């Protein structure tokens, strides 16, 4: 193994470095350009042809363009001795090469296959094939592979065909631009660091493995190849960050980003931008924060109209849709102000100067302020408003863990940041439809299609004598979309595009109904009720209690052997009953 020192000459191989503009800029101007011309380092660069042509190598570092045989050597990771003869590879022996010696550093950027095949513009099959990198992964693996012989390179003669190959103990293989600064530090040092080498080797195999997974998944999706589910597949995950702890303090945890092709251009909470709340490690997004934020974002993204969703322990406790997003927020809080405290608030529209105010005010007060001149909507006023107490007891200041929206104006962010140092403000893109859902069980995973159905995708069939009014049908569809996101057994009561009450997670549907009715109170009269699954019993059970409470319309999947009882019960009380033929269990 070659000892590193400031006077040593190192041979650096470059592969595909300038095929993508973003890579070019970060690579030359920030990273490699920062250390290649260093006077304390003497470097010889062997560049694959595309690298050399796209951008001249930095000066005064000596560069060599790799042509036919040398380029083959780079791609195969083949080392050379003083005679210019490769230790393995008879083809290269016959061809010969102008390059002498071995590589000390291998830097590779693979073809941008992810970006090409996931482009919203689409890509032809032949073009996608052209973007599958062959030489790059070969070179990465050759540089990172374990050693089969521990002899020093300078002790191996050309005629000695011993199976010595370069590996991570001798070659620094770099596939991530984030590692360039530490590479510079390493090359300028006087001591070797096997842990750093091992980390780069591990990262190299991970990188090439993820690349192979992407190609494999894309090929499986081709009409002439794939089926419903592949016999086997890998889920490539990229570590985003470690977390303070898991669901409970005694559990360790981390969050990963799904790097499957179907997720490349998709949104979701895992890839959300956090604008505020990183005061310390203690205040970073937690395991439970991610779960709750994901539940809130999944729910609010299902609505087409401007909507606010408030979630507590993954269940929506407040949902409202209005053209005026401020009014939607107020109504969502009113649905359950006690549960809203400490919850997650999500919007499906931009948060700007106007809606940002509402996080600091009492519900009655905001109406007066909203009607005043917009010139008064400044940070100082927002700070005053934030001290307003909850209408529940008049004393407790409203508190939220997270606010989520697809976009924030500059002024909106400024006002929100004034509410609390620890308020986590997330900017997220809409979730991708049609992706697979995974659930871990002992010894394996359950895989299913995501539940992407909306009211526009199904039929609300009237099975009762009474037809619902147009407003009742709208309420039923709204309640049905809400109940889809509530843990089973789930009941939602709604009216005028606003959730009034919700019952969730009970072992029996009757108990969930009673919780929802209690939350709705007197507003239940003429409201819509949605159930995530059919009612197993009607008389002296959930259906009859709902009818007696004054519910105007009920939406449920149907499918029970006692559906006739539910229909007869609704007919007796003059309640409209709708069957959707779609169940929405959520466990």
TrEMBL record:
InterPro entries: AICAR_Tfase_dup_dom_sf, Cytidine_deaminase-like, MGS-like_dom_sf, PurH-like
Any one Gene Ontology molecular-function term assigned to this protein's record: phosphoribosylaminoimidazolecarboxamide formyltransferase activity
A Pfam cross-reference name: AICARFT_IMPCHas
GO biological process: 'de novo' IMP biosynthetic process
Highest taxon of source: Eukaryota
UniProt GO cellular component terms: cytosol
Keywords for the protein's UniProt record, in alphabetical order: Hydrolase, Multifunctional enzyme, Purine biosynthesis, Transferase
UniProt key word Transferase: yes
Protein name: Uncharacterized protein
Naturally occurring in which organism (per UniProt): Camellia sinensis var. sinensis (China tea)
